[in-house]
Write a structure and sequence with these properties.
By secondary structure, the protein is α/β, with parallel strands linked by helices. The chain contains 14 helices and 16 strands. β1 and β2 form a beta hairpin. The strands form 4 sheets. It has a 7-stranded parallel β-sheet with strand order 10-9-11-8-7-12-13, sandwiched between helices. Strands 5-4-3-6 form a 4-stranded parallel β-sheet, sandwiched between helices. Strands 1-2-16 form a 3-stranded antiparallel β-sheet, with no helix packed on it. α2 runs antiparallel to α5, α2 packs across α7 and α10 packs across α11.
Length: about 425
């Protein structure tokens, strides 16, 4: 099936999704979750073929993003069930005004229509995106990277079984078969067929969508996330936070890529940091973190020079750029110059310093004494997420059900004329 044919089928299905009541959508989601589990073997077989082809072509951490297991499929199914349990945003009255002439004006949440998602090598995005779009009353077109296409096709086949079981059209969920760049361009320029495009992936994919799309786009950001260790930080807490933010899963967008350290604590903190995430991890046969250092940090601990691009790179690997800053304002200046607007954290016992940091840093999520790894729809109580928006219009941060709706005004009268 061509991409154009898929889009036409999906557009025809969007009306049925807009008419579906909450009970029907929830039954479909629960059936989709069951179908994922019922088709575990087929999904893992497809994923195994993807992994064989990807080995040697992508890094070890990217292979981890691609890999599925029974536990991960169970987690995907649980994510779909959690979306079913969330309140239905469609039809919610956001504001109500009664005018002097008796008109009642309701600003009402309604589905987007057809949501297209372009993403790369994370198969679990397939079920997350489908569940959110369908619960929000929209039809959904998915276009994944070639590394994950077999896995995504097996997942979509299972999810479509669930749709059919609940009496909803299977064409409300489709996967683009063409894995060439042409199909991505077709989605970007499918005016009249795609109501919203959401790219999830690296900087190149997002830039291509923003620059070339003729359909509305929500820009999801790459994650050059920072942790700033203030002069008033509890250093044990700071070590825990930096280690978690960098090492718990370095291949995801909410992992820390940069650690900024106040000059007053750098001589104490940086050797402890190296002992924890470099030497300590190596002693446990875990991947050690490679430190990329500015000149001041390099005078305290060994590592590689950060270089001109070291603070502007989303490593997605066991690599951490480290810079010593003069003060809190210096940290905020660095973040303003190098951040992608995703997630930043300050570690400090000083409430005034935390307030100043939070006020100055203009990112979608700003943390005080917590890891950046919490920037996630599930962790924020949204179920799963469609992505992390780093723009300011319409949606910002983890995008859940509410962010996948638009609104219209519904006006009730009793014969009023103007």
């Amino acid at each position: 099936m061509t991409t154009q044919e898929l889009l036409l089928r999906t557009k025809r299905a969007k009306r049925a999704m807009a008419l579906a009541d909450t009970g029907t959508k929830n039954r479909a989601l629960l059936a989709m979750a069951d179908a994922l589990l019922d088709n575990t073997k087929a999904i893992l077989t497809a994923n195994g073929l993807d992994l064989i082809e990807a080995k040697g072509a992508v890094s070890t951490v990217m292979l981890d993003r691609l890999a599925l297991s029974e536990a991960r499929i169970q987690g995907m199914a649980q994510g779909v069930r959690e979306v079913a349990a969330l309140p239905d945003p469609v039809g919610q009255v956001l504001t109500r005004r009664k005018r002097p002439n008796g008109l009642v004006i309701d600003k009402t949440a309604v589905p987007m229509g057809v949501i297209a998602i372009i993403y790369e090598s994370r198969p679990n995005v397939t079920s997350d995106a489908a569940a959110l779009a369908l619960k929000a009353g929209s039809a959904c077109v998915l276009r994944c990277g070639k590394e994950a296409h077999r896995s995504a096709a097996a997942i979509v086949a299972a999810l479509r079984e669930g749709l059919a079981a609940a009496g909803l059209p299977q064409d409300a969920l489709g996967l683009v078969e063409d894995i060439s760049r042409q199909s991505a361009h077709e989605l970007m320029t499918a005016s009249g067929l795609v109501d919203l495009l959401i790219p999830r992936g690296g900087a190149g994919l997002i830039r291509a969508c923003v620059e070339n799309a003729t359909v509305p786009v929500i820009e999801t950001g790459t994650g050059i996330c920072h942790v700033y260790v203030d002069k008033d930080a509890g250093l044990d807490m700071a070590l825990d936070i930096v280690e978690n933010a960098k090492c718990s899963r370095p291949s995801v967008c909410n992992a820390a890529e940069v650690c900024l350290v106040h000059k007053d604590v750098a001589a104490d903190f940086l050797p402890r940091l190296k002992a924890r995430i470099v030497d300590g991890r190596a002693a446990q046969s875990l991947p050690p973190v490679e430190l990329r250092l500015d000149e001041k940090a390099a005078a305290i601990v060994p590592g590689k020079p950060a270089g001109s691009a070291g603070f502007d790179t989303e490593f997605l690997d066991y690599i951490l750029a480290v810079k010593v800053v003069d003060d809190l304002d210096g940290a905020c200046d660095h973040i303003a110059a190098h951040s992608t607007g995703h997630s930043e954290a300050i570690v400090t016992k000083n409430a005034d310093a935390a307030r100043r940091f939070i006020a100055q840093v203009d990112s979608a999520a700003v943390y005080w004494n917590a890891s950046t790894r919490f920037t996630d729809g599930g962790e924020f109580g949204l179920g799963c997420e469609m992505g992390i928006s780093t723009q300011r219009l319409h949606a910002r941060g983890p995008m859940g059900l509410a962010e996948l709706c638009t609104y219209k005004y519904v006006i009730r009268g009793e014969g009023q004329v103007r």
